[in-house]
Amino acid sequence: MKRMRNIQRYCLYVLLVSLLSCGRSRYLDTLDNIKRVGDSNPDTALLMLDSLAEGVRGESEYVRNKYELLKIRLCDKAYRPATSDVAIRNLMGYFGDKGSSLEKQEVFYYAGSVYRDLCDTPRALEYFLNSLDYAQSGMVYDTVMLRNTYSNLNDLYYNVQDYGNAALMARKELEVCRLLDSDRLIPYLHLCSSYIGLDSLSLASAATDSAFNIFRASSVHERNNDDLVYVLYYYSMINNKRMASLCHTMIMKDSSICSGFIPSLFFAYYYDCVEKKDSAIAYCEKALELSESLEERYDATKLLFALNKSNGDDKTACRLAYSYMQLSDSLDFGKRQEKAAQINNQHKYYIDKNRERMLNEQKEKYRRTLYLVSFIAIMLLCLGYVIHITRRNRQLNKILSLNVEIERVSLQEKNLRDELARKESELYEKMAQNKTLVRLLHQSELTDKAEEVIESIRQVSNGEKTMSQSDWDQLFTAVNALYPDFKEQMVNKCDALTEQQIQFCYLLRIGLSNVQIKNVTNMSRVTVWRWMKKFEWIEELG
Questions:
Q1: pTM for this structure?
Q2: Which stretch of DSSP H or E encloses residue 118?
Q3: What Cα–Cα distance (Å) separates residue 106 from each residue in 80, 112, 129, 335?
Q4: Tens digits of residue pLDDT in 230-244
Q5: Can you tell me the mean pLDDT for 422-443?
Q6: DSSP 3-state of 484
Q7: Angle between helices 101-117 and 121-137 (to 10 degrees)
Q8: pLDDT number for residue 436
Q9: Which of 94, 207, 347, 368 is 20 to 30 A (C-alpha) from 23?
């Protein structure tokens, strides 16, 4: 209570000083003071801002919008997720039309933050890229906000598995951190995850080493021990057992960071890396218990399935495989792939739009040149009229030269228009190609699911199991997806196959042995041997 009274007194003092210091612009100065407080203490700044609500209502439209923008900024810094986009849409409409380049950078950055909180990834990407444009084109820009923009873009691209652009954004973030001489550990961690996603283990190893060295060189008060857990995870993912063990030893000195879903899951990866399967399974089960979302349950179940499978516990692995597939369906990775393609299209459109903007700027430059040349020509014509008696011939030659220049510039303008039309045509072609890419991604997802079905049947065929009609249907669908010509080949080579013979052919096509086929179908050894000879052409397909 005493602390709250002190905060209230502090807020009142700052507000009184600010309100009494200036005349008509007192609220703008007050908002600037609150903004500075919010950089270190956003919760206190929000209390100060709320106390201005009544007074700001009677101020100008500009002051009211600055107030609303600051409120969104402070909520973002206080980690209060947005629940609506109404306010930010109004602010984009106002500052997008009347704001400076710095204000546009800020409003579009927080628009990206709002839509990020609302899980609207395409819009978040669009507005972060808009903020980036204003930062790069403006004479004055917020460097810290620019760094945070690259950081958010890295997260967005990584979440949709666009690891190439995620790595690009992480490198840009690192460049800005070097310019600011600020902490570079987070950008290196972003690089680690992106390079691992790209399967560039050498680059991932170098980035992880850099992150670890920065952490070790920092003082005890500057360290965020949670970052070391991520370093441990990345060393485990690239199978650097020595460095992973060193990180684990350092972490165990601080028991406060050894709890929660993320540490538990990362410890499971670590123990798997150092081949302590029982400990890995224990931590993975703990992570599963602590999971709070479908994504977390999916990650924990996926790892737990792999650990039990490698540990020889087929029964548990089979049960987890079922849960794993259910979670995959719940998360709908197909839509995630479509979103990734959509975001990739968005990024390409952003690049093409920038190129188009540059062409338009060049066109405008030539147009201004044409106007300038025309104006000079007119002035020279007027001057020549005054002194035409003495310098007629000379002025006529100059006019002729200027006309030639005007024609040349006009020709350049025509060429620019033709180039712009060609670029627009290329853009439409790329959009058509991107639609094809979405279809290919969808087909890739079907192939991946088919391989999962076939692998599950291969696993259970090692024991005695009777397959249901649903299991047979899944097998037929999966084989037809992976080997589209197989059904037609079977029909052409064999006449009047029974249902059991068809099942036998499909099991033979996925590479099951005599014993495995017997386990699944319960046929006699003699029958299995006889049919293996009859359908030996299937094994020759490879």
A1: 0.59
A2: none
A3: 18, 10, 12, 31
A4: 999 999 999 999 999
A5: 55
A6: coil
A7: 160
A8: 43
A9: 94
Residue 190 neighbours by CB distance under 10 Å: 24
Say how far apart CA 460 and CA 456 lie, in whole Å. Answer: 6
Cβ contact 105:145 at 8 Å = yes
Taking the C-alpha atoms of residue 198 and residue 162, their distance in angstroms, rounded to an integer, is 9
What does the domain layout of the chain look like in residue ranges? 335-457, 462-539
Name the one residue in this structure whose structure tokens are 């540059």. 358
Which tens digits make up the pLDDT trace of 455-493?
Answer: 777 776 777 667 888 888 888 888 888 888 888 888 888
Q: How far apart are CA 535 and CA 537, in angstroms?
A: 5
Beta strands in 63-184 (DSSP E): none
Give the whole-angstrom CA distance, residue 269 versus residue 31: 47
Q: Which long-range contacts (CB under 8 A, 24 or more apart) does 229-235 make?
A: 229/257, 229/262, 229/263, 229/266, 230/189, 230/192, 230/266, 231/189, 232/266, 232/267, 232/270, 233/266, 233/269, 233/270, 234/189, 234/192, 234/193, 234/196, 234/204, 234/207, 234/208, 235/208, 235/273
Identify the DSSP state of 256. G
The DSSP secondary structure of 125-144, one letter per residue, reads: HHHHHHHHHHHHH-SS--HH
Q: Of all residues in the chain, what percent carry a pLDDT higher than 70? A: 79
Structure confidence by residue, pLDDT tens digits, 156-213: 999 888 999 999 999 999 999 999 988 899 999 999 999 999 999 999 999 999 999 9
Distance CA 354, CA 244 (A): 44
**Residues with Cβ < 8 Å from 469, sequence gap 6 or more?**
none
> Containing H/E element for 63?
helix 61-77
Q: What is the mean pLDDT of residues 93-120?
A: 93
- Name residue 461's amino acid: S
Of 102-116, 147-161, 277-291, 451-465, give the lowest mean pLDDT range.
451-465
